[in-house]
Amino acid sequence: MSKARSKFRFVLESLEPRLALSSARPLAVAPLVSRPAPQPPAVVSFPDAGQTIATLREFTQHYPTRVGEPDYDPAFDLNKNGLIGQGDGKLLLRALPPVAPRRPLRLAVILAPDSRAKGSVPTNLGGVTQLRTPTILGRTSPGALIFTGSGLVDLRLTGPALVADERGEFSMQLTQSDGINQLNFMAVDRYGQQTLRAFPILWTRFAEYENAHPRRT
């Protein structure tokens, strides 16, 4: 037997006990770890957020009113000018505890799914509905005040005021009076930011309603 073959046999024999031992032991396999499904980001709100939103909602019940009117409450006339207006709302926002940290102020408005017209409908920059009183949904920064107005002449936004909840959501219903109803929304937060959004609504059954309910002249 050659020296090379003898050396190979010696190495093989010396490894046999180790090979037998390794074949007797099953390979250790790391257990599969299931990762939890990703969760949506948590809503960040401050401890007094609920009380702040409740106070802002109380303010909206008195906006806009003047001294002598039934809903006027001097507690919300912060600038003491006899009118509860947008200026008082902005002062109130800054005076109350914050609802959420500062973030870029954005404002999105849509028709609620059950208020949208079905089938083939005309194109409109806002929404299209067959209902006289549709529901409008919006989203902005949590705790923001939203001032609304309807029509091209209501530039002061003297319609109802709304409050975004801790998720930044708000809603309203509108009783329409024309085929095209121009809505305007202005969101204001406690950090001095504000943004505007125009939202026209096309009421496709306006003519039918007019024929059934003729206006008195």
Please give a quick description of this structure.
The chain is of the alpha+beta class and 217 residues long.
What this model shows, in words?
With 217 residues, the protein is of the alpha+beta class. It has a single domain (49-212), classed as Immunoglobulins (Immunoglobulin-like, Sandwich), CATH 2.60.40.10. 24% of the residues lie in helices and 23% in strands. The protein has a five-stranded mixed β-sheet with strand order 4-10-9-6-7. Strands 3-5-8 form a three-stranded antiparallel β-sheet, with no helix packed on it. A hairpin with a 5-residue loop joins β9 and β10 (194-203). Residues 3-12, 14-34 and 38-42 have low confidence and may be disordered.
Ordered list of secondary-structure elements with their pairings:
Layout: H1 3-24, H2 49-60, E1 65-66, E2 83-84, H3 86-95, E3 108-111, E4 127-129, E5 135-139, E6 145-150, E7 161-163, E8 169-173, E9 180-188, E10 194-203, H4 206-212
Parallel strand pairs: 4-10
Antiparallel strand pairs: 1-2, 3-5, 5-8, 6-7, 6-9, 9-10
